[in-house]
Queue: 4 jobs
Job 1
Amino acid sequence: ESARLPFFLSYSSVSAPVSSNTARSSAFSMVCPSARQLPCPAAQQSGNNLIALILPDITTELLQQITLGVRHCCDQTQNDYILLPTFSSPQSEQHSIGLAKKLGCGGVLLMPVDNASYSDALLGLVLEKVPCIFLDRQLIGLNIPVVYSDHRRMGYAATRRLLDEGATHIAYFAQTDEITSVNERENGYVAALEEQHNPNRCIVKLAGIRNELLNEKMLYFLQKNPAIDGIVINSGIPAAHAIRAMRRLGKEIGRDYRMIVFDGNNTTADLCLDEPVPAIVQDGYRIGYTACELLLRQIAGGEAPPPKTIIPLPAADEETIPS
């Protein structure tokens, strides 16, 4: 049984598990030829609309792909977009929404910040019936359509892969617990463990921990839980900190533990590793393109988008993830 740490350890429940299978890594390049040829009924609608694309930043592969999809959809439909970064700040998000209104944007594509931020500006989108679509995640209680991946399947597939590779004590590191995509991945993680009758559940919350302290917190956790032999975590900085913490304990990927990451290939960290880290990569291009298309339809004719639009993962991953 995992130790309880006061600063970030918690547990979550899950509904009935899904069927079993394994998942393997799939790279999704910056240029997506198949996605460039996506049919776009919105192209038949009048152009000259300006939409706001509000994202935390564009430093990750997923966010770059989303931006590329929005850009291509706008190019094909003679519309324009403006990119407004929030840097994961509720205050910046509120400012960006207000700026979008001042600029006369006809609609908003928004990836909410990674905490429970229900600002007046955000609530105003609902009350004023501004055409808006969330990207990748929802905020619980807000009736705003969302275009996203099946995060529960992703969490399940990542965990099941590590189990199939022999890991028995798998830690799931989560950035926050206020975003639905994170909660759904946790549910998938728990489903995979329950399906294998594995009681070693450990969900580690990293919310609120500054980057300069993250490595020390991970090191402390891993020292207190030496049985950990598998890690599920987001790519980028979180994965790099986990790898460094393990190395400080004399442990190496492949020899002492297994790791799998979400949302982007662990390219930079892989340069320092003998064994690359597998990844489950979302189809960010189609998320951005589809969300933009749905928003333009709504702006042009008032057609309401469906509450949820699930974008399949890239083909190489989708073939090996259970339905």
Note: Residues 1-37 have pLDDT under 50 and may be disordered.
Job 2
Amino acid sequence: RHTRLRTVTGVQTCALPIYLALQALNLAGPLGYGTGEARARMLRGYGHYYLSEYQEALAQFGQSEALAARLGEVVTQARAVNGQAITLVTLGQYGAGMDRHLHGLQLGQASGDRVAQARTLNNIGNLYLDLRDYESALAYHQDSLALAREIGHDLMVSSASINAALDTHYLGRFEAALALNRETLRRAQAQGYRQHEFLLRANMAANLLGLGRPGEALEQAQQAARGSQALGDRENLCDAPVLRGQALLALGDGTARAALEQAVTLADELGVIFRQIEAHQALSNLLETEGDVAGALRSARVTAELERQALTELLQRRTQVTATQMKLDRKSTRLNSV
């Protein structure tokens, strides 16, 4: 239902990093400063990724990785590989994304770069979360969280904690998820992680709904919506109206329909299929309780078609990842027999 947090390198979501990285690239190239060029291309790749310019991102990450590998700059290489992995997963190429993630993990382990290891573990957990393998996702997120705590990386602790609580929620352990989210919320507020704060409030609303506490869920969903609106976080702003509508519906409040209609509009605009399913299903349930049989049926049909598409995508992704794992197992077997 909710946003999983991919761990990147800290660049901001705007065009400025691309401009700055391009300036650095223009300076590094003529000087023959390969280390600077590799890093500039890596940062430029993340800038393109944030702007949804995925082919440009892959091109920059690939050039950065090749140059960094040639120069022995393992930290930059690992960050470029991480960029390749999350871009490929975003494009639906889960097998290739898993291959890159595992390569990044090997680089981090070989170089002793524990930040790279924690980052990659978190993102592999996200991949399994997308595959709805919640037990595997939780194991990777917990490993990332433990390592992030050990090295004192506060932002990664926050990210991995949010993801671990999300896994726990999907496993039906709502009380445990709520407790972890509350602990993470206190830290996020103290450290000024505003996006995390409002994402956590939306996730806590879902936990509270799962526990049958719609009044408290409504309060958290409303705070999440206001904060996400102020930050321009459209992804979380899509979750919050769904949760608000579900809470209002559970409370028998007449404004639930308007909230869910808004949620449907936002979800369809964003085009993220799992959010569309949640929004259309909630609206269908509400229309059925209001006696609008035709409207409920329309929303139910949209939900069914979206679920069919989601299941097809899920099976394709699982097949890709399984094929990658089998290829890696065969490679490992050959190496061990040499």
Note: Confidence is low (pLDDT under 50) at residues 9-14, 332-338.
Job 3
Amino acid sequence: RDSVASRGLGDVYKRQTMSSSVWQAMSVDGVLEDTGMEEEVLDYIFNKYADRIFEHTAPDDMPSYSNDFTLRHVYFYLVFVYMHTHPKTRQFKRTMWVRGMKNGYHSSHFYRYIVPVAMKLSEVIDELKWGDRLAFDNHCPAFPFYVTGITDTMPLRVSQPVHQSNLERGLYAVKYATHVVKLALTCTFKREIIHMSGIHMGAESDGAIGERTIDSLPLFPWERWLADGPYESSRFCIVPYRTLRIPGPSNVFRPLTAIQILHNRFFSFYRSRIEQVNATVRNHDIIEGRPFRGNLAHLDAYVKIIVHCTNVGIRQGKSRLDGYGWWPHAMSFEGP
């Protein structure tokens, strides 16, 4: 029995080391530099979803230029290379390649072999845990009860549509003076992502997005999320105190009290955790680089993959914060 167990552990270790070395064998400038993801994240996602995203590629199909990895590994890896570097079509031959290839994939091969993998992965990937918001250590000293999440919206630039006036108007955001889509994320105090919505049309305000999406979520009546000012119309969000204009002919505003200023400082400190998550998600050129030009359904798939993979990295301890406390957010899940 001991020998069988030892062989089992040895097989697991062998699979893990082989899985880890696959990405290194393919990398050109290093796995993190090529894909923006740690090897452990790629290992986890590939091992969990490979059998569900490759319909026409067998597990043992090997490329002609290497025996160190399979075609499944190549297609999977290049999905992340594309999202991280977002090359133009004419740059594919020097970008969309792995070690051993003489030239990168042509755009026709990209759309035939790699895009379908990304689309399928976006359909099945599920790495956001809605229940994490109710964890007994999801607290902070300033908000020890009721607050279960921190939410924010960020823009993703897209190219101006041609000959589609309705879409052009829907994507144009006056706030940014350009065409964008918007992505809304919510995280816990530990920076774990618990919810994403989008992509949304850029012309829609952050407040309208929050009111339409957050208010329809299965939240308990007592739950609250920290958010920026535009979210004040959502019944589940609390926002910082703001100065109010005093009625009258003069343009005079009532100043904040010392307590309100102190509250806003604590509020801003803890709300910045969602901005830190946003910054990690933005660390890919498909989101933060040149304006995306192409099918918005493809962009939606790439964004979903990046968000879910980012959360895997956070849960693996790359940027996760320690929890605080060990108590429920309310007296009961039915209400305080």
Note: The first helix runs from residue 2 to 26.
Job 4
Amino acid sequence: RDIALSKDKKWVFVASADDNSLSVFKVNPDFSLSHRQTIKSNDKVKLEGALSVVSDDSGQNIYVLSYYHSALLHFNFSEQAGLTLQHTLSDNLPFTKVFKQADTIKPEQDALGILGGYELAINHKTNQLFIAATVSHSVSVFNLNQDGKPMLLQRIHANKDAALSGAVSVTTDKTGQLLAVAGMNGKAVSIYRRNKAGKFHFSQTLEHLFDMPISVSFAGNGHYLIAVDAINSDIVLAHKNQEQAFEVVKVLSKTEHGIEGLNKVTLSMSEHAILTFSEQSHRIDEFQINEAALKHSRNLRPSDLSSATALEFLDSTHAVSTWAKSDSIAVFKF
């Protein structure tokens, strides 16, 4: 489902929502992968629906978000010991209450704002961790202390912004001063700005009619914001104008790019290229950003792999990716 790399790109961490697990693979000199360790969900390790994984700048702290357990797990990693669970943050509500009786949840039962947590993001400049949560309808901001432990700093809640209703994706620019969130229920994308205390304040909502924004990413060192729509497959490009506000400058529709069912957008190797993912069309596509235009540059569509979910570059010519329906992790040479 999702991939994170160690800082030296010699280790790959894979979160699997189907297997409810976190796995570690070593990247060999020939770019083959050797399985090192798998930790599965159990009474002490809350990995049910492990959807999202990130690593800190040291590569020693690994964070996993579990959708069905509504939990954030912090692991320590070393080459000698492998993964060791350090901390689990959860409001410990039963599955039925979170996903079938959400309207009965009291505010004090949702203290962390990570119920139905869907996406994790980390910013290495500010040492902050972010969670978009579909049931809490919020983004939670955590500071990481010197041991890598996440400490809740702020909850940005849907009462104040429709883009947080069904919050499904969160991202920051490289500096960590800008944050964007997509709300699949609220059908909106909003941008927040960071103050000196590290907290985020509402800046604007993108002026665009979304059906279901599912993923967001900054590009061009914070000058661009890209969102993809899961229902109509629009790729929406916004550019920062002279007033420092983001305005939509290009919408690439399905009739133009021909991709069904977009479910994710991330940066490619450079700040001026993005990758889009489609589980439905079983492909990963790259687009170059050029002022107010998106130009398709290449795609990855292996005939024997289905449902593209993540890709990370190991170097300028090799990348590792996950394919959900094929239960596969694969390394590609470009």
Note: The first strand starts at residue 2 and ends at 5.
